[in-house]
Design goal:
By secondary structure, the chain is an all-alpha fold. It has four helices and no strands. The longest helix has 20 residues. The radius of gyration is 30 Å and the shape is rod-shaped. The model has no long low-confidence stretch (mean pLDDT about 80).
Length: about 80
């Protein structure tokens, strides 16, 4: 078989069914859902810096409260 024959045979065998863009849309939807889930995880760590002892002490002093620590600097 020559290269031209193989190419012609391969061209005859290829068939496209439906819209390729619509068939691959699910990959974009899956990626969007994953990024939204990761965004929610990132958002859940919001305001964690205020749990540190120095900031907690400053907040307690500003509010006029006593602060008791539990040993590791967090309350």
């Amino acid at each position: 078989m020559t290269l031209a024959t193989i190419t012609a045979f391969a061209a005859e065998q290829t068939e496209h069914h439906g819209n390729v863009q619509a068939e691959t849309m699910i990959f974009g939807v899956i990626a969007l859902v994953i990024f939204l889930a990761l965004g929610l995880v990132t958002l859940s760590y919001r305001n964690v810096a205020n749990r540190h002892s120095s900031k907690a002490e400053a907040y307690a002093a500003a509010q006029g409260r006593e602060l008791t620590q539990s040993g590791n600097g967090h309350h």
